[in-house]
C-alpha cells in the first residue's frame, strides 16, 4: 500500500537489525523500501539486504558526499556492478547520485568540479543502461537540471525536493517525480509544505531517508521505514484527501518513476 522510495537501511544506525525494521515496515503496509547505495563499499550490502527481505529493492551509485574519497576505479566498479545487477529484478535504479552545494567545502574549487564529473559520469551510466536515477538535490537544483538537459535519462526521483515551483516543474518536465518525507511534517517548513500541497498529485512520491530526515514526532531520534505511512498521512492532510487515496497515488507514482520496481508488483 505504501512505498518508501529512499531509505538507507544498510546504515550503521540500524545496528544490524535490518530484518526487524523491514518487517516492522511491512506490518505498517509498506510494500517496498528502496535502498540506495552511497559508495563502492556498500554496493554489495544494499543488494544483500534487499535479497534477504520480502519488501526491499536497491539502487547503485556514488553519493556526492562520498565523491571526495572516490576515484576513477570506483566508477569502473560501479559500471561492472550495474552490468551484473541488471539480471537481478530487485535492482531498480542508479543512486544515490547528484550534487551537494550545501556543504561549503564541496561547493568550491576542485571538489565541486569532481562532484560534477562524478554526477555526469553516473548520468551516462543511467543513459547507457536505460535506468532511472535517484537524485541528491541539496542547494544544487539548477546545476543538476543543466546536466539532465544535456544527458537524457529515463527520469527518476528528485529526492528530498526543496526548490522553487519553477525548479519543480523543470524536473517534472524531464520525467522526474519529487520525493517528500520527514521535513514536510514540520510546520515551519513552509516552502516544502506549499510544494507538497500544491504540486500535481501525480508528481509526488514518499520517502523516509531513514535513518535521517526524521519527522517531527521523532526528531532528533533516528528515522525508520515504518514511519512512511504516518508521513504519508501528513501529506494527505496537507492535500485534504483520504489517506487511502494518497497511498495509492504515491505508490503508483513510484512505480512509474521506477519501472523495474513496478515489475516486482
TrEMBL record:
<dbReference type="InterPro" id="IPR018228">
    <property type="entry name" value="DNase_TatD-rel_CS"/>
</dbReference>
<feature type="binding site">
    <location>
        <position position="6"/>
    </location>
    <ligand>
        <name>a divalent metal cation 1</name>
    </ligand>
</feature>
<comment type="similarity">
    <text>Belongs to the metallo-dependent hydrolases superfamily. TatD-type hydrolase family.</text>
</comment>
<feature type="binding site">
    <location>
        <position position="209"/>
    </location>
    <ligand>
        <name>a divalent metal cation 1</name>
    </ligand>
</feature>
<keyword id="KW-0378">Hydrolase</keyword>
<dbReference type="InterPro" id="IPR032466">
    <property type="entry name" value="Metal_Hydrolase"/>
</dbReference>
<feature type="binding site">
    <location>
        <position position="96"/>
    </location>
    <ligand>
        <name>a divalent metal cation 1</name>
    </ligand>
</feature>
<dbReference type="GO" id="GO:0046872">
    <property type="term" value="F:metal ion binding"/>
</dbReference>
<protein>
    <submittedName>
        <fullName>TatD family deoxyribonuclease</fullName>
    </submittedName>
</protein>
<feature type="binding site">
    <location>
        <position position="159"/>
    </location>
    <ligand>
        <name>a divalent metal cation 2</name>
    </ligand>
</feature>
<keyword id="KW-0479">Metal-binding</keyword>
<dbReference type="GO" id="GO:0016788">
    <property type="term" value="F:hydrolase activity, acting on ester bonds"/>
</dbReference>
<dbReference type="Pfam" id="PF01026">
    <property type="entry name" value="TatD_DNase"/>
</dbReference>
<feature type="binding site">
    <location>
        <position position="136"/>
    </location>
    <ligand>
        <name>a divalent metal cation 2</name>
    </ligand>
</feature>
<feature type="binding site">
    <location>
        <position position="8"/>
    </location>
    <ligand>
        <name>a divalent metal cation 1</name>
    </ligand>
</feature>
<dbReference type="InterPro" id="IPR001130">
    <property type="entry name" value="TatD-like"/>
</dbReference>
